Amino acid sequence: MEPVIEVNELTKRYGGKTAVDRLSFTVRPGRVTGFLGPNGSGKSTTLRMVLGLDAPTSGTATVGGVPFRAHRRGLHHAGALLDAGHVHGGRTARAHLSALARGNGIGARRVTEVLEEVGLADAARRRVGGFSLGMRQRLGIATALLGDPPVLIFDEPVNGMDPEGVLWVRRLFRRLAAEGRTVFLSSHLMSEMEQTADDLVVIGQGRLITAESVRDFAARGTRLSVTVATPRPAELTAVLTAAGASVEGEGEGGREGAAGAGKLVVTGLPADRIAALAFENGVLLHELTTRAATLEEAFMALTADSVEYLAGGTR
Ligand SMILES: Nc1ncnc2c1ncn2[C@@H]1O[C@H](COP(=O)(O)OP(=O)(O)OP(=O)(O)O)[C@@H](O)[C@H]1O
């Protein structure tokens, strides 16, 4: 059986609110797949349905061809980190893992192994209540790994981790995928995913926006822009616009009629063409810099229409 996650027309409504809206996608083994969307876009709700913790209003989610609930030995089948704050604070890390291991027919040696794997061997006898968020995340990852499952699902695993933890977890995900497992991670930050994921599933307001490889997303989603500084921004804007470019002023100086040098951000024309047009029209340039939009910017542009709440309520 191939450890594939298959989501088909999955829908979840809470009263009048549609949290997940006819969502379909496939997550394959041997790759790290990033599940991306702004806050509140329905990622956690989807993952809960994949793991059988929530019932869909309609549609299906299967792991290895059957609903997750139908698998008897769950921890051996799929491991998940959903909410790192969920662990009983009075227990030690080892006691927490040992209880789960016993309930799933897993030996004590495996508990020691996963504690070492996630870097918590020295903290194994400390109460989880005193753990930092990053340590709780590590414990959650240890829990997911306990049954050595072919499918791993992590909801915002990098939250609260320090830079060293982030590097560690990235390497771990890459290794788990290289071992042939299915690794599915949610995040609201593209910058995290571009370092880690091979494939992306991007959603907004519960709907699929795109499912493709990071490479295809980067090739399609990023566009080049050229920053131009000139003492005659209005004149250059007119020349470039006439040549088909789209031009925006950057800061005060870029505005029409502004005195002094202005910076313009130009899209739709390459730098050498801009330089030639400026030269032909006798406009002096102080700067000409090509810049690729980051994947984060491409992601934000793609999901902008589906962001519910923006800081400051500017929409
Ligand atoms: N139990 C619930 N009852 C009512 N509404 C809910 C419930 N759970 C989630 N929602 C709503 O469903 C939508 C999707 O929430 P969800 O937590 O799945 O999003 P998310 O993408 O995981 O967001 P975040 O990144 O903030 O965790 C939100 O508008 C949320 O308020």
Automatic annotation (TrEMBL):
Record-linked SUPFAM superfamilies: P-loop containing nucleoside triphosphate hydrolases (SSF52540)
Any one Pfam family match given in the protein's UniProt record, by short name: ABC_tran
UniProt GO MF annotations: ATP binding; ATP hydrolysis activity
CDD domains tied to this protein: ABC_BcrA_bacitracin_resist
Superkingdom per UniProt: Bacteria
All copies of domain ABC transporter, residue ranges: 5-230
Keyword Nucleotide-binding: yes
InterPro entries: AAA+_ATPase, ABC_transporter-like_ATP-bd, ABC_transporter-like_CS, P-loop_NTPase
Keywords linked to the UniProt accession: ATP-binding, Nucleotide-binding, Transport
Keyword Transmembrane helix included in the entry's annotation: no
PANTHER family, sorted: ABC TRANSPORTER, ATP-BINDING PROTEIN
Family per similarity comment: Belongs to the ABC transporter superfamily.
Protein name: ABC transporter
Classification lineage: Bacteria, Bacillati, Actinomycetota, Actinomycetes, Kitasatosporales
